[in-house]
Amino acid sequence: MSEKNAKKKRTGIGLALWLLAALLILIIFLINQDKIASNLKATGFFSKTGLKTPEFVEKAEVKSSSVADKNEVAPIETIEIDLNGVGSHVEEKNIQSEVQENIYENIKAQNDAAKKQQEAAVEEKINSKTEKKESAQKPEEKETTVRKEVSVKTAPKTSSMKLKLYFMTINSDGSVSRKEIIREMKKSDSPLMDAVNALIKGPVASEENSGCRSLVSENTRLIGASVKNGTATLNFSGDFEFNKYGIEGLRGQLQQIVFTATAFPTVENVQFLVDGEKKEYLGSEGVWIGTPLNRNSF
């Protein structure tokens, strides 16, 4: 009888421990519900598993990257140009250059106004002195007055920009990890396209010597880029689907591009297109690209 009671007691204790563990898990879930839901939505967990996405996950807000990870320049929403019915080509335009042009024009206008005021003051002073001397001198002895030009320096235009690029590096144990570098590039109206094209081209000699490698598929071309509501849509040629390093290469190239694109302050995630088409999986290995990917996706 006592053995039976002891067995029941052990069963009761075990059940109590299970209930306590379940309660702790529930409490942790409730505390971190927003973060968990954000990560589930960002990684497309339910879409990848074929399950219906719960309503609380669908409504979750994806957390943005920190300001420290962002570039100083920002791409903005783009326009589409129809080339005689051949198709739409997406071009990116940088708002930063326009803002800097406006600032430069304002500074120039202010400097021009200051220059005119200084010239007027100098001229008035010279005229005043001349009039006094004319009254005391003979006409043939009047001194010649030299007007000095007052120069005002204007703000120089910035001709370069620093962009964050993300390459991959192979560690001593054979594992692959992400590596951030900052490259100074010629300033343009399409910094996002410039950054992605730099990844496609690969690291320069100094970056390669530091261990940087690009896993973006060979012969890949960036056909177009646009940014709208925090999502950068990047359209690549068909070569983007085939990576000689297999599934790890595909994941690496996606990671490189997502981290590089989201380094711009107006970009939170990336929607990938191949030859203008939205696909659920990339390549025969089946890496998910059916929804926009962000940094939490890796």
Largest beta-sheet characterization: 3 strands, mixed
The helix count comes to 8
> What fraction of the residues are assigned to beta strands by DSSP?
15-25%
Mean pLDDT: 77
Quote the distance from N terminus to C terminus: 58 Å
Report the principal-axis shape.
elongated
Number of domains: 3
Q: Based on helices, strands and strand pairing, what is the structural class? A: alpha+beta
Q: What secondary-structure arrangement, pairings included, does this model have?
A:
Elements: H1 2-31, H2 33-43, H3 45-49, H4 55-58, E1 79-82, E2 88-91, H5 95-136, E3 160-170, E4 176-186, H6 191-201, H7 205-209, E5 222-228, E6 231-236, H8 246-261, E7 269-274, E8 281-282, E9 287-288
Parallel strand pairs: 6-7
Antiparallel strand pairs: 1-2, 3-4, 5-6, 8-9
What can you see in these coordinates?
- The radius of gyration is 32 Å and the shape is elongated.
- The protein has helices spanning 2-31, 33-43, 45-49, 55-58, 95-136, 191-201, 205-209, 246-261; strands at residues 79-82, 88-91, 160-170, 176-186, 222-228, 231-236, 269-274, 281-282, 287-288.
- The model is unreliable at 79-100 and 138-152 (pLDDT under 50).
- The strands form 4 sheets. Strands 5-6-7 form a 3-stranded mixed beta sheet, with helices on one face.
- The chain has 298 residues and is an alpha+beta fold.
- The chain contains 8 helices and 9 strands.
- The protein has 3 domains: 2-58, no CATH class; 80-93 and 159-297, no CATH class; 106-158.
- InterPro entries: GerMN.
- This is Lipoprotein LpqB, GerMN domain protein.
- The chain crosses the membrane at residues 12-31.
- Residues 115-153 are annotated as: Disordered.
